[in-house]
Design goal:
Mean pLDDT: 96
CATH superfamily of the largest domain: Metal-dependent hydrolases
CATH class of the largest domain: Alpha Beta
Largest sheet: 9 strands, mixed
Strand content: 15-25%
Structural class: alpha/beta
Number of helices: 15
Number of strands: 18
Radius of gyration: 21 Å
Number of domains: 2
Bound molecules: zinc ion
CATH architecture of the largest domain: Alpha-Beta Barrel
Distance between the termini: 57 Å
Length: about 450
Amino acid sequence: MTETQVLGNGTLVTGGPAPQVVPQGAVAWRGERILEAGPEASLMARHRGARYLDAGGGLILPGLVNTHHHFYSALARGLDPAVPMASFPEVLQRLWWRLDRALDPECIRICAQLSVAECIRQGCTTVFDHHASPSCIEGSLDWIAEAVEEGGISALLCYEISDRNGSAGAWAGLGENLRFLQARQQDRRIRGVVGLHASFTLRDETLAQVADRRPAGAGCHIHVAEDPVDVEASHDAFGLGPIERLDRFGLLDEQALLAHAIHLEDRHYERVAEAGSVLIHNPESNANNGVGRLDVARTAGFGCTIGLGTDGMSSSMLRSLRFAFLSHRGATGDPSAGFEGVPALLPANLTIARRFFDEPRLGELAEGAPADLIALDSPPPTPIKDDNAFAQLVYGASEAPVRHTIARGTVLLEDFCLTTLDPERLAARAREVSPALWDRFYALDWSTPFIG
Ligand SMILES: [Zn+2]
């Protein structure tokens, strides 16, 4: 029989829309499920002999969820495109659309392993990845899934369909999504959705095929209005904006994941809320690209569900949360702003993940819920209560390292050390393959059209 394990000596913050704080709390689990969570003294009396993990007096939280990541960008660190990038379309054409074409199967595997290792180190136990590798599409989601399985977290994967490299690439991308969706339909930990790049690189015919061929209930994960170019180029080429096009093809539903959604009008946010689709805020990436920002408080006012992602910038959800908070204040010029909308982002990620994994209790630290939990190495120096847990996070705890990460009951990070992946070996291998990747990158032209 699987042994009972306990994570104790910490302050328990149960997460969810109404977080409960339990000083001197602990969580006990066996196999993949939590047995109980609560005050440590009484819990330990019922689980004598359990394997004990010490949280070091820090915070015990539900495992974090990242609803928008790009593993494939892991080997771009330090890469100088060596050409000017004065606008967002130039960032895409001269950096990302060159890098993704230069990826080979080994680079894809290493990128996924590096990213999964970093997710675990940052306490992320469920991640939504958006992948592109136009030179090797078929099988690419399997290589990523293998890395996710090796690491031990849960993931929602997709291939980014786009017409920017021609119709053959778009059909291959659709095929890869459909193949993977079918193969993983019954998988509890790794599932598929249909990935789409963005409206301005997708023909009507491609969207029609996606709508026609996707299995019932399969969602779409797409970039929307990250920059005004998506709206303007969609209108110019197809006569409609991104939201209207998704709506026209029946793709705007409760399973639709819309990353960014910055340059939309009020009526679009109202329509997104009505359809039950999800917006995903990526504040660090938006600042890095200088594309503006999603006004979370205002958008939430329309009734939209808003999640939080990192968009390949990092794998740290807590730093992304802190940046979301501070950038909201910076943009509004209001030193009291940020407590509307921003505290709901991480709980919303849990709600969103539940939709895709048939785990209605994901993120609860309570009996019967999946044993996805972390210990943050930040003993609270001041009183922590139900009503100030968010402030404790953004004003300090978000900067602390993660001590333990547990996903479905398996300890993936123990006392700051990864148990399933070897980061030194991975980085050494990555340093071996990245020069050749960069050589291929520099050999490619940087004038990819929006529609190939
Ligand atoms: Zn993205």
